[in-house]
Write a structure and sequence with these properties.
about 35% helix; globular; alpha/beta; six-stranded mixed beta sheet; binds flavin-adenine dinucleotide; eight-stranded mixed beta sheet
């Protein structure tokens, strides 16, 4: 049995856990990160790709944005397409210079793992039997097995950054958390393809046959999505059928269409909105997907993970520097205000751009009117733009020990 001690024990080496570990490092706060998957698995997992302006600024301020600076694709706008026509929304002009950046989550994770390794602070991959205990004491514990050794890791605080299927949230006693959930009657079939993007910006499409999204990961790789039933077997979709459906839904009257290429990855993801509140129990703090899930339409999941850990790092800095606990006490309320606004936005994008099975002709006409209003009103476009590039965080970079 190995007995370890740290200030902050972090479960999960996804974006939330790795960013928190680095923010704490920059403030001289010790942490140990415990991850149950291998390094390769964590890096290869294809997921988010849209970074809000605030997330990009945060990665820069943390000093981990070298590759992002070189390889990230800054987008000043996006397209909304319906009834065979694309409509441009200029995010940058509408938000006083802000933008989004396309940079794969796996690249973000790779950069953060490299940064962690360079600090020589502990990061255990392939940890087994991970569990947490003594959460309502001042010395909570993370137990795990690594190699052939069982470890007892005593901490001041545990950060549950272990995603939706992790162990932290289920370890909170029954009755403490309120759960808010909505599942959607559709999922996304996503592909990565070796095809040069035929648009420089994302194209969100509502078609009679359902939603489609055109996006990209690099100047040579496109990332495309189709609305399908939530339990759709991927085997039902040979590559030719995927391309035919993509082109049917996305091609516009002016002839714009996605470029076809070799599909190198494909899968179906169900869609869900979920919030657990409060995001804290005793000395356990939940951050990122362990506390909330958004449907990917608004591109908010990774960005919420980043804003949660900024708030947590700022509160932990106050705790370690002056023994102040008020900021930790405010953590959940501060995060949840931003989380619920992102939930509302993601729900609105999802319900406006997808066709639900129970939908009536009235509902569809209302969706068209919604999109017609959106793309013809500067006020409506501004509202979308400020939410899409990301609402401001409530805590400053300086409060987390970063340059402003
Ligand atoms: C297909 C898809 C597309 C998406 N697109 C977007 C997008 O465009 N924009 C966007 O912002 N978001 C998007 N998201 C959401 C985004 O990927 C997540 O919100 C983000 O990964 C959350 O980061 P996290 O660190 O909180 O959780 P995770 O990335 O899930 O990380 C949690 C980590 O904890 C580990 N873990 C789990 N259980 C344990 C355990 N018992 N012990 C130790 N470790 C454990 C996991 O292996 C994982 O490494 C998408 C998600 C999916 C699935």
């Amino acid at each position: 049995m190995g007995s370890l001690r740290t200030q902050v024990g972090i479960i999960g080496a996804g974006p939330a856990g790795l960013m928190l570990g680095h923010l704490l490092h920059l403030n001289g706060i010790d942490s140990v990160i415990v991850e149950n998957r291998s390094r390769e698995y964590v890096i290869d997992r294809v997921r988010a790709g849209v970074l809000e302006q605030g997330t990009v600024d945060l990665l820069h301020a943390m000093g981990v944005a070298g590759n992002l600076q070189r390889e990230g694709l800054r987008h000043d706008g996006l397209y909304i397409s319906f009834q065979g026509q694309r409509h441009h929304i200029n995010l940058t002009e509408l938000t006083g210079g802000r933008a989004i950046t396309v940079y794969g989550q796996n690249e973000v994770v790779k950069d953060l793992i490299d940064a962690r390794v360079a600090t020589s602070r502990p990061l255990y991959f392939e940890a087994e039997h991970v569990s947490v205990g003594a959460l309502d004491s001042s010395s909570p514990v993370i137990r795990f097995r690594h190699g052939d050794v069982d470890h007892d890791l005593r901490c001041d605080v545990i950060a549950g950054c272990d995603g939706f299927h992790g162990v932290c949230r289920p370890s909170i006693p029954a009755g403490v958390l309120s759960m808010y959930e909505r599942t959607y009657p559709f999922g996304w079939l996503g592909i990565l393809a070796e095809a040069a993007p035929s648009s420089d910006e994302l194209v969100y499409t509502l078609h009679e046959r359902g939603f489609a999204l055109f996006s990209m990961r690099s100047p040579k790789i496109t990332r495309l999505y189709l609305q399908v039933p939530p339990d759709e077997p991927i085997e039902k979709w040979p590559d030719d059928a995927i391309w035919e459906e993509m082109r049917t839904r996305m091609t516009t009257r002016d002839g714009w269409t996605p470029t076809v290429g070799r599909i190198i990855q494909k899968g179906v993801t169900p869609m869900r909105s979920f919030v657990a509140a409060p995001m804290r129990y005793g000395r356990l703090f939940l951050a990122g997907d362990s506390a909330h899930i958004v449907p990917p339409t608004g591109a908010k999941g990774l960005n919420l993970a980043a804003s949660d850990v900024l708030v947590l790092a700022s509160a932990l800095k106050a705790f370690y520097e002056g023994g102040r606990t008020e900021r930790l006490d405010e953590y959940s309320d501060i995060c949840l205000r931003r989380v619920w606004k992102a939930q509302r936005f993601s729900w609105w994008m999802t319900s406006t751009l997808h066709r639900a099975p129970e939908e009536t002709a009235f509902d569809h006409q209302r969706q068209i009117a919604d999109l017609d209003y959106l793309t013809s009103s500067r006020a409506a476009m501004t509202s979308l733009a400020e939410q899409y590039v990301g609402l401001p965080a409530e805590v400053s970079f300086a409060s987390a020990g970063l340059p402003s």
